[in-house]
Amino acid sequence: MLCTGTAADARRTAERVRRLGAEYLDAGVQASPEMIGTSAATLLYGGSAEAFRRHRPVLELLSTASFVGTAPEAAAVCDLALFGLWYDAQLGLLRALETVAGAGIDVSAFAATATTRLGHVVGSVHDTASEVLERSYPAGPASLAEHLPLLHQLIDLRAGSAIGDGGLASVLENVAALVADGRGGEGLTAAVGVAAGRPVTPPG
Amino acid sequence: MLCTGTAADARRTAERVRRLGAEYLDAGVQASPEMIGTSAATLLYGGSAEAFRRHRPVLELLSTASFVGTAPEAAAVCDLALFGLWYDAQLGLLRALETVAGAGIDVSAFAATATTRLGHVVGSVHDTASEVLERSYPAGPASLAEHLPLLHQLIDLRAGSAIGDGGLASVLENVAALVADGRGGEGLTAAVGVAAGRPVTPPG
Predict the structure, then answer these.
(1) Of B33, B168, B191, B204, which residue is 20 to 30 A from A66 by alpha carbon distance?
(2) Which residues from chain A sit within 8 angstroms of residue B111, using beta carbons?
(3) CA distance A97 to chain B (A)
(4) What's domain A7-77's architecture?
(5) pLDDT for A149-179, tens place per residue?
(6) Could you report how far apart the first and last alpha carbons of chain A are, in Å?
(7) Are A51 and A21 in contact (CB under 8 A)?
(8) Residues A89/A66, Cβ–Cβ less than 8 Å
(9) Could you give the ipTM of this predicted complex?
(10) Contact pairs from chain A to chain B, CB under 8 Å
């Protein structure tokens, strides 16, 4: 079954499929319809690694095929997490543009600077992923102690924004707790406090 | 006076400077200390366009000098908006990494896909800025009617995240109101509903 759904949909369907004695392979679509059938499209697969291995030659006809994890919901979660990443970054850009336009700042010139700033986030994705996996939180561009006053200032600046403040209050609370706990020298990744990723079963 | 402060600091200082009969030029620092004195550093200036024009040759010795607006707080707001953009994008990345790690998805492979997805936001910064300036809101990758169910799913997915849900509830509320208002075919930029930017006085 190839469709992008929720994690709960995937788990429910996988259970039904299992009871029928079959294997479940779920997919997340990272492409627009006209890209399907070309290598420019990527479909993310999760569920039965054995089913993926067996049917891979056929799946590769549809798109670049990428196996992301053995949980029935792996593809759905991965797909939704990517949409979420797009929302957070795009909403961040819209908040920044709203703020500078409101202060009479040249929006076009700002866009050039914003491109550079966002480029720093893109350029450090792999380092950030390593920090999450290794639970190692170097300060990077700023320490938690330095983030704290900036987060306070930003929450003030964003009061009354049409699209809210980006949920910074809960981030601030988390950062303040870490600083109070003597971890003010660590970087922002420490605020996730994520459980290190379970390894993915390689697909054969 | 060259330092990064709040908008209120800038307005207060500008008023004091004005009463003393002088002109106020504020700066926002977009560089680390070791970059100052090189063209790799950028300082953002706001306030008196005349003072900027007059002292530009000296200011250019410190860094690339960019004039962002005539309001006393223009540089401070611009600087803080850029920090905010970094937070929203970086927190979005951390949320995504936290989510996929928790679902047993291969975090390193995800990082490659996340880099591509964030690259789309970077690549469309100028188009997004034009939409804000022109108050024109084409659907782009998805319409507001298509965003609505995704935002619901994401809020569910992010329940319990260590760094909150990115304030999506207020975005959802705004998007739902626009859809109810018959604007479901527009794009996400419509949710900002920003006042078009006032033009910046060119620095002479």
Answers:
(1) B168
(2) 125-126, 128-129
(3) 7
(4) 3-Layer(aba) Sandwich (3.40)
(5) 999 999 999 998 889 999 999 999 999 999 9
(6) 21
(7) no
(8) no
(9) 0.88
(10) 358
